[in-house]
């Protein structure tokens, strides 16, 4: 302790030495600036400018106009052509990029330079919008990486040194000045400040921190200096886990998108085959010229390409992931958004999920001749020297109630029963109530114990010597938002289950208070897995919400596993498909609603895309559909489905 105090006393010299850890940039420009910085958008706009310039001088300077059209083709189509050729060479497959480039070149070959340039421009614009939607969707989670500080101020051997965060170890003492980013997870050793935890929990209001409180890497310190004792190495902080989640979220593709991508290759080959048949067969069968046949085939190639269909899913999923991240829900990929939309049951682990996970004193019954404050102070004196959760609950209640803190001597654990110690020379014991059955206690005590246990409480007896001084009851209390969270899920038509290893009486009490539909108690970890599987067979898609290592198998067995980010174990977070960073279980209902909204938008996009393609193909064969109209109808539909997906960013 003296060593730490000595290190703190040297910290006042830090400002004079000019030491300060690096601060990451956090500039957030307006969305249109971000859009204009997108290289694909710059290429699309450049192509559009060239197209307009070429069209403007086409009547007077035809050669110059063609050169400008070629420039428009090159600027707008180069990236897409490169992608298409790579797919063809490496994967031996055709994609929509190559179809569009072929259609544009075909239009130019028969003298429709402007139509081809327009196709390139709108196709490049739709691609840029899709790219922008991806960047925008990733921004709310991937920007966390920019919050990772590179250095920290460490107090060691009476000096202050600036070190890389990778060198920090548990037990190191750090100084975090006002306005700086927390370099590591830790506990506040000294100081007071309000810390902005929005980057981790999504909370909009800074949280006050003082000695003993936990802080997280990547959060921003407020106006006060804090001395932080490191509790986690750099690669094991909550912040590092979030970054890992971001990387997973950016790489995982939903099943529907994988199907569309597989379908794209088959469909593209079919479109090319039909185009060739049209060019060769129409002059022979219908007596039209080769030029007219080629034109109609190019229109078909444009309108039949599945651009809008391909863009129907991922912008929607990424937008949904982004909006969820802003509310403290991190999805590890679009596949889990799809599965969340189909949720039929949400199964909660009890401890630490529906409840706080920390026992609290609920009842204190004093025997005749004892008052509650005296009883509490003597019990706390003995229990304060124990690390058992029930002992900590009694000590915490004494402090909160303002009971006099007394020193206990000769404190010893009684194996299998409780604890004892001397307070002011007298022996005090706190432990199991089985002594009530052994010592012919007053039946009133036994009856009171039974009443408390029926309420799901753990009851301990407080004894002075061999005399019963009172009973103290404790219970893990429900989270403040638990009742609302359950009710909101039920309003969505979702069954709510509770899985717990606790005894049935305790589970029934919690279930009654929260209003859950199904209760399963006394479950071991493997039994939780069996119960989750049973729920899936009976109801369909199941979301499992848990926070502990023992919940990890059940999280993996569920359709969607959801881990608690703040209080959850590292194992639960790694296994989970979704992480609830702020532990606010009310957001689960919102996530289901948002996922269902995303599913509806995907269906809208797919139906719209197929309808437009069908109408344009029919128009090409039934009447003389002009290439410019085909281009506008086809690429316009692609832009519309992307914009429809971007609505989920709200």
Order of neighbouring strands in the sheet with most strands: 9-21-20-19-10-17-18
- Tell me about the biggest sheet? 7 strands, mixed
Beta-strand residue fraction: 15-25%
Shape: elongated
Uncertain regions spanning at least 5 consecutive residues: 1-30
Annotation, overall tally of beta strands: 21
Query: So, CATH architecture of the domain at 329-355 and 479-595?
Result: 3-Layer(aba) Sandwich
Q: Quickly give the structural class.
A: alpha+beta
C-alpha Rg (nearest Å): 33 Å
Predict the CATH topology of the domain at 329-355 and 479-595.
Answer: Rossmann fold
Helix segment tally: 26
The helical percent reads 40-55%
Distance between the termini: 50 Å
Q: What's the CATH H-level superfamily name of the domain at 329-355 and 479-595?
A: HAD superfamily/HAD-like
Q: Identify the CATH class of the domain at 329-355 and 479-595.
A: Alpha Beta
Membrane topology: Multi-pass membrane protein
Protein name: Heavy metal translocating P-type ATPase
Keywords: ATP-binding, Cell membrane, Ion transport, Magnesium, Membrane, Metal-binding, Nucleotide-binding, Phosphoprotein, Translocase, Transmembrane, Transmembrane helix, Transport
Family: Belongs to the cation transport ATPase (P-type) (TC 3.A.3) family. Type IB subfamily.
